[in-house]
Amino acid sequence: MSQVTSAPASAAPAPPTAESLATVVTTPTVRRVVRRSLYWGVAVAGLLGFGVLMVVLNGSGRELARWGADEAAPVGSRAVLEVLRAEGIDVTAVGTLADARRALAGDDPATLAVGDPRLLLDAERWGELDGLAEHLVLLEPPLYGLDALGLDAVPLREFDLRVDVDCTLPLAQRAGTIDATGVGYASDSGSVCFTEGTGGPESDESESENQGSAGSALVSYELDGESTVSVLGAGGAVQNDQITQAGNAALALGLLGEHPRLVWYLPTPADLTSPSLDELTPGWVNPVAWLLLATGLAAAVWRGRRLGPVVVEQLPVTVKTTETMEGRARLYARDGARLRALDALRVGTLRRLADGLALGRASGVDDIVNAVAAITGRSTDALRTLLVDREPDTDRELVALSDRLLELEREVLRRVALDDTADTADAAGAPAPSDPPRPQPPTGRMDP
Amino acid sequence: MAVTGWFVLLVALGVVPVVLLVDTPLGAVGAVALWLLVCVLLAALDLALAASPRAVRLERDTPGSVRLTESARATLLVTNPGRRTLRGIIRDAWEPSAGASPRRQRLHVPPRERRAVVTTLTPWRRGERRAAIATIRALGPMRLAGRQASIRVPGAITVLPEFASRKHLPSRLAKLRELDGRTAVMVRGQGTEFDSLREYVRGDDVRSIDWRATARRSGGPGRSGGPAQTLMVRTWRPERDRHVVVIVDSGRTSAARIADETRIDTAFESTLLLSALADRAGDRVDVAVFDRRVRGRVQGARGAELLTRLVETMAPIDPELLETDWSAVPSLVRSMTSQRALVVLATPLESPGATRSLLAMLPQLTAKHLVVVASVTDPALLEAAADRSDRASVYRAAAAERALLDAERVGAAVRRLGGDVVAAAPLDLPPALADRYLAYKAAGRL
């Protein structure tokens, strides 16, 4: 009677013949799942691939590295380094001080160019640069770096202007006029070049009096004869976008191409001297964290896989019987229909009193009031006020009246139950017993 | 496909090799990747070695019906036709209200063998409860991963009405027997028949002494004579072969739930008790469930068959959210009986507005039949009417009093139209209706 559909082909779109007697495997086979989700899988993969391609092509999402050796963007320095390479200079781009040392090892005279736009090097590291190479070119160095190197150059402020050569340095002379963008420096002991204002009318002002100006674009120091330090304030001169302007190219090639080797050192976070989190933690922490992540994923798969689908069932509606009553109560309360509410309570009380006194349904208010007065000894007028006439003005009054109604009911019931005296007999006997409260069949008293 | 907790544990255990391997040339990434690869390969191997849950043959063995609140054992026979041992978990999923337990069970079926998976059903709702699906997760020998398939195996069990009021049946039957053989003339009316003669015992009504029979008996042969006379009395029994017609309202108002029971369930309980009693009393019982059409009808059944057919008819019926078409009821009753009958209408009497069509139809029935309306009252109304603790509850009490008054007025209207009303709380209605029937029986009003 049970037929098994194991082959995926025969299990294909199983029509809902569940009502038939055959058993049907409802879980799709792996092949069917793959086939069904192929479109979306391909679509999502295609979109992802496209996105990655766009990122790669546009290079967006990557921070532009100023003076980057391989950076083709305007702020990079790939152009000048390529030209230097073409000129036969051995250009090495490094990211850490240790690499720089390694690259500088050797006998050939070398140039070390250091630019730290992200200010990653601390003073100590700056100091270590001293004497590493025959020519040290500092691109817009910070004050503490200069102090660490024992140089008296001081960065003044940013400038962006065209300056003429105003010193006798051969490489500066070759450059002539440069478009200087960067920071101007002032120095007493070093020889300064391209001081602001030399291109203008006040060209013959001395640099020492120029403290109010933006300073010079190039400061160079000759240290003990064989080692040179150049502070290039016009860092823009070696950027791709400005290298071709004015004499920038001549200046850059002159500075950097002096020696057969050039080490282009841009500090990276690896240079940070304070120990990083990586160095402080044992080597196994990261892989264990990945493993825990994988464990969490596996646990999610484990717990997330349901043992079959959720079973749904059509349940009948649930109708509350008291909804009408609650709604009516809220209407009474909202409109403050005190008299109407009290009348409903009074009718209920009168009905129960009539039942308790065996007066019958047809008895009027007067009959009930008289009977109650007879059994309780209260005055007829007071009872009438309570049961009919009194109109409540406040909710407090309504609650009080309702309590008194209940109290009256209890008293009457107690009296009826306690003293089965002539009073009750009279009261019950006075009106014709039309109907007992719950109409008993005539022979009810025959039952045991 | 599914993985188990063991697989998760295996992945987590990778901490040991990863810590050991992290300083080797493999490096951190390599160690983690290697371990994950090992885990995935093991899981894949396990998966490949697992038995196919799709190939399993399933058969059901379900009892046809179960009474509400009782339990039944639903058996699912699992045959493993393959050559690998099927081990894992099985879930025999039923509709939630079938109350299936346990939800999931271990499964171990050796190759080419069959095992029974027993699920205990304790339904909490009347009607037909269906089996939805059976899901098998077959694990591999290492229990790391498993293959899973859901298989629809049709099956159903009919949940019959509880008939909780059957506990009232013995006492009512005892009352019925008391009616039998009763001598008092008070009982004798147009509805009683002469039953038999028997000897007088103390307590018998002297008016029921049959003097002629006494004379015949004492004057007969074989008597030694003497002063001791044997008095004979006549006994009577209630008339038999009357007709009871029950119309259960399955319309909108019967959907209301009172004290955890819908009104229609209470009506069914009352019907069952009344039918059982009337059938024992020798009367014919016909039942119809009606809203705008006849939802169920039991006619001409007697004895045990009557109750069986009644519960089977009632089992799948849920109230419809329709206004009951009372104008069609007289013709329905006419189609069920041609003679005078006790017609019981099981429907709530709530407000004058909702019962207008019932009241309009009633004279047609009362002209020929004895009509009783069995109405469920809400104990919550009485509670609300008695609670006067604060302002809000006083207003609620007023509204409850108002609702009670409405019901009272409808009941009075029914009585005025010649019908009778039995109104009681859900648990009290079935015995109340049975008592009313016995009272009619005793009075010979049927």
TrEMBL record, chain A:
Residues 70-256 form the DUF4350 domain. Residues 433-442 have a biased composition (Pro residues). The keyword Transmembrane helix applies. It holds the Pfam family DUF4350. The chain crosses the membrane at residues 38-57. Keywords: Membrane, Transmembrane, Transmembrane helix. It comes from the Bacteria. Residues 195-215, 419-448 are annotated as: Disordered. InterPro entries: DUF4350 (IPR025646). The keyword Transmembrane applies. This is DUF4350 domain-containing protein. It comes from Microcella pacifica.
UniProtKB/TrEMBL annotation, chain B:
Residues 197-380 form the DUF58 domain. Signal peptide: none annotated. Coiled coil: none annotated. Pfam families: DUF58. It comes from the Bacteria. Keywords: Membrane, Transmembrane, Transmembrane helix. The chain crosses the membrane at residues 31-51. This is DUF58 domain-containing protein. It comes from Microcella pacifica.
